[in-house]
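Recall that a protein's primary structure is simply its ordered list of amino acids. Everything else, from secondary elements to tertiary packing, is in principle encoded there. The following example makes that idea concrete.
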Amino acid sequence: MKKLLFSVCFVSTLLLACSSSDNSETNNNNTKGYDRTAMLTNWADNIIIPAYENYSSKVNTLSQRTAAFTASPDASTLASLRTEWQNAYTAYQYIAMYDFGKAAELYLKQSANTYPTDVTGIQANIASGTYNLNLQAQFTKQGFPAVDYLINGQGTDSETISFFANANASAYLTTVVNQLKTIAETVTADWKTNFRSQYIQNNGTSVTSSVNKTTNNFIKNLEKDVRTAKMGIPAGLFSNGTTFPDKVEAYYKNDVSKVLLNAGMQAEVDFFNGKAFNGTSTGASLKSALDDVKAVRNNQNLSDIINSQFNLVFAANNTLSDSFSQQIVNDNAKMLAAYSALQQNVVYIKVDMMQALNMTIDYVDGDGD
């Protein structure tokens, strides 16, 4: 009888524990205190789609300047081309984190900004005149880094103009820019005509829900594409101190790496705060979600801690030279300090924020944060 009573109590306790756990999980997922639909609507209508429209417009202008330059290569058309390359490259920083939907399907990020670019491969493509930029093996031979090499890596202005006397070189530049343009236009159109409604309707709490996927891409971009690629790898953080000044973003222009870094950081800050791309208004966001669930760390609002750390990140970034290559060679300690400031916010966001919002990291993580 005692054994039977024990068994009944054990099973009852086990069932109660399981039931309590399940209910707790459900409550955490469904009544966390923030409106996922409002968040997705703000993200789509006020941030993502306007950023894509801007990017597509800038790449379209780059395409026009490319056509003008290849038709009449001279100092004036080259200068205009370089300006629009930088403008489009900066606009790219604001859409880089949205690597899902049609953007992922078309490999927008990989085809637009895989660096360092493969100079030998580019030269081989130009020499042969035969290539297919849709192949993944061609990611390192196209995009903004490839254009950087083509228009900034040939020496003096006169040497660059002479380089494009080669019809294959002009054709290659045109093809690379047209690839950027086609993908940008396709992704932007898909967001406006098809993907937006699916995106907002997928407002649940699963790992594949829009809120979770977007938040994961926001963090992944901050950690992998901004922190690691723009700063950590060139500064030697992942190579036992061996530095790589030639692996900075925009290596051939060589004085806009900080501009691109700060643009990428500003895109992250604006997204976190739900700031409209084309204005100053803010809407439902990760910040407001943290405030809604009353997330704190050391008796401070977690959202305030994260924004304060972003300010420290910009302060550290602004101590850097415009040329990250020179900064790494002359005073790499400042690069390491800027990296550390950003790394602290990666921890706040990737660990504290995700726990507070009951979300899970869905990408491979080897950093141990």
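The longest strand covers residues 296-297. The domain at 32-356 is CATH 1.20.1420.20 (A middle domain of Talin 1).
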